[in-house]
Amino acid sequence: MSAEAHGHDHGHDHEHEHHHKDTFITKYIFSIDHKMIAKQYLITGIVMGVIGIAMSLLFRMQLAWPEESFKIFNVLLGDKFAPDGVMANDIYLALVTIHGTIMVFFVLTAGLSGTFSNLLIPLQIGARDMASGFMNMISYWLFFISAVVMLSSLFVEAGPASAGWTIYPPLSALPQAIPGSGAGMTLWLVSMAIFIASSLMGSLNYIVTVINLRTKGMSMTRLPLTIWTFFVTAIIGVISFPVLLSAALLLIFDRSFGTSFFLSDIYIAGEVLHYQGGSPVLFEHLFWFLGHPEVYIVILPAMGLVSEIMATNSRKPIFGYRAMIMSVLAIAFLSTIVWGHHMFISGMNPFLGSVFTFTTLLIAIPSAVKAFNWITTLWKGNLQFNPAMLFSIGMVSTFITGGLTGIILGDSTLDINVHDTYFVIAHFHLVMGISALYGMFAGIYHWFPKMYGRMLNKNLGYIHFWVTAVCAYGVFFPMHFIGLAGLPRRYYTNTNFPLFDDLQNVNVLITTFALVGGAFQLVFLYNFFSSIFYGKKAVQNPWKSTTLEWTTPVEHIHGNWPGEIPHVYRWPYDYSNPNHDVDFVPQNVPMKEGEEVLHH
Amino acid sequence: MTSLLVIIVLVLLAVALWQLTKIFDLTQVGSSSDDSQVASDNDNNIQGYIMFGFLAFIYIFTIYGLLKWGNLALHTPASEHGILVDSLMNITWVLIFTVQVITQGLLYWFSFKNRGHKDRKALFFADSNKLEAIWSIIPSVVLACLILYGLYAWNNIMFVDKDEDVVEIELYAQQFKWTARYAGNDNVLGKANVRLIEGINTLGVDMSDPNSQDDIVVTELHIPKGKKVHFKMRSQDVLHSAYMPHFRAQMNCVPGMVTEFAFVPTYTTAEYRELPFMIEKVANINKLRAEKSVELVAKGGTALDPYTFDYLLLCNKICGASHYNMQMKVVVDTPEDYKKWLSEKTTLAQDIKAAAAAEKPAEGVEGAAVDTAAKVKDTVKAVIDTVKAAVAKVAMK
């Protein structure tokens, strides 16, 4: 492995650059260094995030001021989709669809997991690089290609995919049913197939690396919780993503080769189609077999990051380290047997509804354990309110608020009436959207010094967090009420229902909060990109953390550590250990003579 | 345009704030060490207080929301099982609010209380089996109760007793409208398949099936109060979802299969309109509509009609461009009115016969003449349209 060759490096960056003939291309583009790949994932994720969030702002404006003319619509969407600045209903559905796809897959799966798994797995377990640096590089570039394909679908004649991010057939299978199901949907499916290949390569790499490349002394029960969550996330990904791939392939067959996996008895545009014997419900099963674990693929890494950041900034061990691991494992297991709660009213046998209600509500137990353990971690701590810590606390807060309404949606009886209303949107945006975003922001603020050797501006971080926090609640809290009023999602406008006229003011309020919150993300973008070049230089261990990544030199070198890889002698959470005078003891510090292990 | 302005203002605001932080940074130049971007005691103090403030924000916003928007939520259920659903919902809400208030309170209170200080040392408190047992067991017990209640209700709602005396109605979904088919005197719906769609028989009913002979097809749904209505749903093209929020009823319509849902309506449309909460709601909506009308008229548009409440069947599964306007009026009648309404309807068989009879003479010479006339009319119309479009184009230039 190339990493071994660099073992003799001594961390002097100038010397380093002379030693290895890294061209611009091998260093910044086709890099096999996990730290560079992590940064590539992050930047791509941020770009996709900007696009995804901008889309949501556009359709939020349409919802608040339906069919009103906005110059910006015309500028961004063009004459075809926004003639005279009025958003067309086709493009509304397309925006909703692509927003969901981008945020779930490209930002919160690849952007979050890809960035931090790549950055932290080798650094925190004490490895010189990923098990296969080359596969890692391919993984990123497939992700990049899939992002390009997805974005290119925005420019096809009939418009991008617009059947919702869940792309239920027959709507997604028949161009007669909606224009976006033509070339736009083809590109969507191709993009997702490439994305899944990328994700699988990444996941396999993470799993192998965690199992095989841990440094001496780094037993599984000494792994930081970040690594545990990345590891488990990768396993869920490997189990469930192939199922989505199969669903996508079968859908391609139905669309292009005349098979009938998901279609049957269809009469559209004045003619009977030849499809016979398939079932859209089958697609729903396949889709949600990934789709549900997917939300844990999104949230588990955020949970790991938050656990780590909370312990560091509370100057306390994470409370219940083993319970945290057990709950991650329990959530991961349960996540694969609850997909049916998206389908209570899909027409499947109601008995299945009972089973899925049972398994779904069980998830509340490990989730509750995690929430209470985080809260207890704060108790009698010495909290350092760095921006990363604020986002971590914010994540726990939105995870609880959003998670609690899951008790309603997971209960088949109650789901009947709130299914596919704005109540669902409010629920999942809080529990997985905002929470995972907070986790990602927390991770960025915390590990930025590790990635770029510089610090993010903390005051801009504070502004970013507090405005975002207020706006996130401002957007999604009122949304529960319009959902409870029975307002269905994915309606271009509600003006055809006088019944919903009294919800319009709430929609205006939501959009206002969304616009303000969206605008303040510019503060983050500015902070991020300017700090890469002009930020204050970081010290080696700015947060006084115990984990191994902070024992590497600030300037990146291939192979991470000059000289030998550190050995590990203790668990990752020796903060404020009463046996020591300093309030943190890094993992590579040997136990003192006679020092007792103070935790289980 | 206004939003664009709003956005610009926000951007400027952001710039201003950034400038402020710059100034703030400059005031600390003297002390600029490498850890200047790590939270200081001063930061911890300020952020700790903001944490406390944010807790207040959450509580106040929740109370404000409940007072201001609480009455937007669906009120009195209009079906028998709806009462069961709503009581489970209310129990769950009590639980949710209790947990929410306690956990958010603890989270932000601990944040405020334990804000960092350089002289402080955190308590090394790694785990406690007792505590963890408490917060594993309590949720387990509470959830077990919820699950049992939920499953009891679910089974009651979803499994229709086959021997029960029910009214059979088919709900038929297509882009972008609903149609209903009544089973007629025999209370058995005739077989149907989209391959049999022809002319006026838009539901593809199999007219060779004896059960189909008395089926009635209508575009406005009437159901009798106090009787169990058993809906069988079909779709001819894509997934739709038959959503009747006031009855707490929803079921997807899936091409290629028949799905079902049953409920007993408990208020006629007239009775539901007279419920106090509904009178208030409709008055409020009409106030809003009147305000909007004034605005519209000022712009040269037409005023909105005042609103009277009707039960609705909405499509609640994305189904294409006009998904947002796929609805059908639902009327709950007294059993007598319902019988009367239904008896006035013609059966599908009669409709088909009538259509065939109407078509026959059209096949003769007369029909040809009519056809020609219609064609000429169409051509003239097309020419006019083309000219109009051309004029419009020139005018645009």
Automatic annotation (TrEMBL), chain A:
Its main location: membrane. It is a multi-pass membrane protein. Keywords: Electron transport, Heme, Iron, Membrane, Metal-binding, Respiratory chain, Transmembrane, Transmembrane helix, Transport. GO terms for molecular function: cytochrome-c oxidase activity; heme binding. Signal peptide: none annotated. One of its GO terms (biological process) is aerobic respiration. GO terms for cellular component: membrane. Residues 24-569 form the Cytochrome oxidase subunit I profile domain. Pfam families: COX1. It comes from the Bacteria. It is found in: Membrane. The chain crosses the membrane at residues 41-59, 91-121, 141-168, 188-213, 225-253, 286-307, 319-339, 351-376, 388-410, 422-448, 460-486, 506-529. Belongs to the heme-copper respiratory oxidase family. This is Cytochrome c oxidase subunit I. It comes from Flavobacterium panici. The lineage of its organism: Bacteria, Pseudomonadati, Bacteroidota, Flavobacteriia, Flavobacteriales.
From TrEMBL, chain B:
The chain crosses the membrane at residues 46-67, 88-110, 133-152. One of its GO terms (cellular component) is membrane. GO terms for biological process: ATP synthesis coupled electron transport. Keywords: Electron transport, Membrane, Respiratory chain, Translocase, Transmembrane, Transmembrane helix, Transport. Residues 164-344 form the Cytochrome oxidase subunit II copper A binding domain. It is a multi-pass membrane protein. One of its GO terms (molecular function) is cytochrome-c oxidase activity. Its main location: membrane. It is found in: Membrane. Its EC number is 7.1.1.9. InterPro entries: CcO_II, CcO_II-like_C, Cupredoxin, Cyt_c_oxidase_su2_TM_dom, Cyt_c_oxidase_su2_TM_sf. Residues 66-161 form the Cytochrome oxidase subunit II transmembrane region profile domain. It holds the Pfam family COX2_TM. PANTHER family: CYTOCHROME C OXIDASE SUBUNIT 2, CYTOCHROME C OXIDASE, SUBUNIT II. Belongs to the cytochrome c oxidase subunit 2 family. This is cytochrome-c oxidase. It comes from Flavobacterium panici.
